[in-house]
Sequence to fold (177 residues):
Amino acid sequence: MEITIELTLDHWKSFQKYLEKERTSSVKNITDNFWFNLFSWMVLAFVFMFIFRKFNDFHWQSAVFVVGIIILIAIMVIYKSKKIYAAYQPEIGGAFLGTHNLRFDEDGIHSYGKCYESRNGWETVKSIKNEVGLIMLFIDTSVAFIIPKDKVDNSDALFDHICSLYTQITSRPVNND
Fold:
């Protein structure tokens, strides 16, 4: 099966939002634990209660100044993260944006477009996802072939075809959780 798709900046943004949501939620650490958070907040409350009981004078001007500094730092972090996000957007005429031809057969995924041609065997596919309006064939943690569902005629039939080829060649089930 062969398809031709046109990838836009909106498709890239959808893919990036999926990666941010899925990849960060799949990595758990101790601060995600309810009991850890409960205990931490209790300790923090007791420390503040001890400090305020010990010192009767509370200098509100200093507190407002410190809160202002913290808010300023938070604004700078948000601004910087948006700037980094914009810096990694694909360029017009680059490898992501534009027309791509994809062919799926027993040999793997054949992709070609302006100034490139590649083939990836089915063994390189780590997972196949059908979410956020995209069919994504991950070949690494954050690298995937992206097929927008709105750019193909019958996306469900295409997804089923890709999954059957993947399962047939690799003898692994599709991990679409």
Notes: The chain is about 45% helix and 25% strand. The radius of gyration is 24 Å. The chain has a mean pLDDT of 86.
